[in-house]
Amino acid sequence: MLPIEMPITEIATFAAGVAFAGAVSGVLAGVFGIGGGAVLVPVFYQVMTALGVDEGVRMHVAVGSSLAIIVPTSLRSFQGHHARGVVDMELLRNFLVPVPLGVLVATLIAASISSEGLRLIFALIALAVGLRLAFNRGSWRLGSEIPGNPWRAAIGFVIGLLSTLMGIGGGVMNNTFMSLFGRPMHQAVATSAGVGVLIAIPGTIGYIWAGWGDARLPIASTGYVNWIAVALILPITLLVTPFGVRIAHAMKKRHLETAFGTFLLLVSGRFFWSLYG
């Protein structure tokens, strides 16, 4: 619950920060085919830290709430890209089982891992993804064709697993996977929006189950999903996501990738500092 002594100006500042994060995440959902969780999770975590939410569930609620928000933003992003006919539906069909299976395993891990462990996972993945985005080169390739099964299924499982632990829609990881095998960036972005749907829906259900009945949860939470956070962010992200889709089809994304990669490196450093500083 919000502490009674907290000044209204501070509450307003936090609300404005969360609203700004929602706008940024919505644009990212369209531009990169991601749900914006990499932006939302650290913002939610800092807000809940300031509001005195129990440290033992703080990171779990940040991740679970992010996944709940990703459900409609990924759906809307996927709809926009699918209308343009650039989604790789064959790859998505191949991911129908392995990605949700990875999500299931991740929720089982989330049910037992500590807040510190979840923060460490986020920091490590953010570091790896941030480095990849910041130093990415279009010439980097592992092949000219996406590998078939069982490698394709294994990669889908890993994308679902790591994305759910991090509270993201899997777009950056799937973008990397597809681009390393020669797929056009626009197709990778569009397909990643569909991957986000496969992650966010079962992930939200899983985090609700994982945190069900925990006495340390903040007010208006169902399991590890806080509906106040969802209600604040959701309208904004749904409003701005179509703008991100238009940006994705109208400009080069190298500068955006560099900026987003730098942001992830800063977030990773912040979480490492909170653990070991």
From TrEMBL:
InterPro entries documented for this protein: TM_pro_TauE-like
Pfam hit, one: TauE
Subcellular location per the Swiss-Prot or TrEMBL entry: Cell membrane; Membrane
Parts of the chain that traverse the membrane: 12-45, 57-75, 95-111, 118-135, 155-177, 189-212, 224-245, 257-276
Superkingdom of the organism of origin: Bacteria
Keywords: Cell membrane, Membrane, Transmembrane, Transmembrane helix
Membrane-topology descriptor: Multi-pass membrane protein
Keyword Methyltransferase: no
CC terms in the record's Gene Ontology section: plasma membrane
Family in the record: Belongs to the 4-toluene sulfonate uptake permease (TSUP) (TC 2.A.102) family.
PANTHER family: MEMBRANE TRANSPORTER PROTEIN HI_0806-RELATED
UniProt protein name: Probable membrane transporter protein
Source lineage: Bacteria, Pseudomonadati, Pseudomonadota, Alphaproteobacteria, Hyphomicrobiales
